[in-house]
Amino acid sequence: MDMQNIPKVETADRLLDTAFRRGRDSAKLSKQKARGDRFNKQKTVELRKFAAARKSLVDSLERILKSFPSFDQLSDFYKELVKCTLDYRLLKKSLGAVNWARKQVDELHSVYAKRLKRAKYPDELGKIRGEFYGRISSVLKQVKNELAMLEEARKIMRGYPLFKQDMFTVAIAGFPNVGKTTLLSKLTPAKPEIAAYPFTTKGINMGYAKSGSRIIQLVDTPGTLNRFDKMNNIEKQAYLVIKHLADAVVYVFDLTEPYPLSDQIKLYKNVERLKPGLLIYFSKADILEQEVIDKFREKYPGFYDPEELKNHLFSRT
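^ thats the sequence. predicted structure below, dont judge the formating
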């Protein structure tokens, strides 16, 4: 689900300025083409001005509605991601308000275009136009806060990572600085396609490993899986990746103990409760004595050769 290309949501004032400018531009062209007596020419010009302003607003509001995803059709991962990073009810309410505004502009155009056609005197035309512009301005001003909310939501949603949900996905878990990112770079090509997606002030690393026609999506999941309500946004995202997207999870142990082994084991068990059947990888094996690894592997069997781990992962695709 690509949410990174949602276009900017303009303010109510900007939408109105654009609509009125297009109305004026249309009027200039219409003056050259209008036929009939002077009064009917004026009517034609005003009608086209109304139509241009209406089209500008309706098209802009429809573009906003279509650019946001249909939340009911989102995958579980993106549904939960939206709900834990945005006020979901307010977001849906704001989209509903924009849809209401779109319908109101359409209805008002229909009402005032009919009044314009029925006008019998030239001095009625300016008055009707003033009322029409005033009414549609009022409608847009009524949803100015909702438009502002949608723009803020857009900025947040643009930071969501673009996962390929039909691809075999491997999450790499463990404490910070235990070698997760190093493992990611070893499993991916020489020039790995790793992207940092800004979610808060941090990012999430992704990469792709290829074997023949098979491709694996790998995700470095930061965070220590505290209680969900205690996690920051990037940790919540990592939690959701493991819960909803991961087909396999590799847990990285660092036996040099930048974090006590007791803490690393505790986190391992937390992750295993979330996604049973973890694969274990031992980082920094080149600086460890083999007997240290072998002893730990008696209770927690795992890999310390990235190539062996990679081959095992592809055997599961």
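Confidence is low (pLDDT under 50) at residues 192-201.
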